[in-house]
Amino acid sequence: MSILALKFDNIKEIVEIELDSTVNAEFFKNYLLEFGRPADQLFYMQSAEQLLEDFLNKARQAKELFNFNWDLTSLTQNNFNLWHKDIETFDLNNYPWSQEKGDFFIALHTALHAAELREKNNSPSIRKQMLVKWFGSSLPWPEIPKFKSVLDINAGDITTGYPHVGKPPWVCFQQNDNTNLQQTCRLPDACPPSFHIWLINNTIADTNEKKKRQLKREQQLTNWYQQNINQLEALFTQDQMLTYDGEYCIGRLKNIDQLHFLQTSDLTSVSIV
């Protein structure tokens, strides 16, 4: 079993991730090692108020930098969908390039996603997960990943980030974002330079209830696919969509007791050692 060792600021101990014994896990580790620098982004799922304020601040900066004319007084899902499409179609090459602007643009997109989810963060005092991200392209997986239900995620699990600009099918369905899916909707079918550390359990102990929810989700996705088949059939099949639905868990914390440090410490940077 391969190890990915992390050094966080403000934690004396090395945090080790036990990666699965798969070709994909080794590919993932080697890709991250190639960056040779601390992660470009260390992001916690924060309180709803913090998430919204972070996004609004970045959106105001985007208006100054890129002339985004967003009505920030109306935080409807329709507006969030429109803002996503502004980001997806935006061409940074039309503006004087700097690495700082490129990094900010990625951070803006992350903040936009987080602000959309703010109402689902029902425990603002508890950090639910941590995103560790490098700014770089996603690479094709050597093998098709095996995804699992989010209802099977445990505290300490490591799941890969979303590898594309846009949204996976389930998020498009949830947010009723069905306009120009050829532009927006993608399967998580590549190796991203990012991962999540889950800080709390997301599992459901009741097996019957879990199956019921999983079946409902599958049926909702299937119905959504059929309703939008004129856009989606050129992108992926219904079976492919269901195969790539869920979370790709690629490893777990070796020492689960270290979750306490990740949940409570004021962490701002992390490197692979």
Mean residue pLDDT: 90
Q: Which structural category fits the helices and strands? A: alpha+beta
- Give the oligomeric state: single chain
Low-confidence parts, pLDDT < 50 over ≥5 residues?
Answer: none
Beta strands, count: 10
Summarize the main sheet: 8 strands, antiparallel
Radius of gyration: 19 Å
What level of helicity do the residues show?
A: 25-40%
What percentage of amino acids are in beta strands?
Answer: 15-25%
CATH class of the domain at 3-45 and 127-272: Mainly Beta
CATH topology of the domain at 3-45 and 127-272: Cyclophilin
- Principal-axis shape equals globular
Distance separating the two termini: 17 Å
Summarize the structure.
With 273 residues, the protein is α+β, with helices and mostly antiparallel strands. 40% of the residues lie in helices and 15% in strands.
Could you characterize the architecture of this molecule?
This protein has 273 residues and is of the alpha+beta class. Helix content is 40%, strand content 15%. It has a domain at 3-45 and 127-272: Cyclophilin, CATH 2.40.100. It has an 8-stranded antiparallel sheet, with helices on one face. The radius of gyration is 19 Å and the shape is globular.
List the helices and strands and how they pair.
Layout: E1 3-8, E2 15-19, H1 23-33, E3 41-44, H2 48-66, H3 77-89, H4 99-116, E4 129-133, E5 139-140, E6 157-160, H5 169-174, H6 181-184, E7 190-191, E8 194-198, H7 207-227, H8 229-232, H9 238-243, E9 249-253, H10 259-264, E10 270-272
Helix pairs in contact: 2-4, 3-4
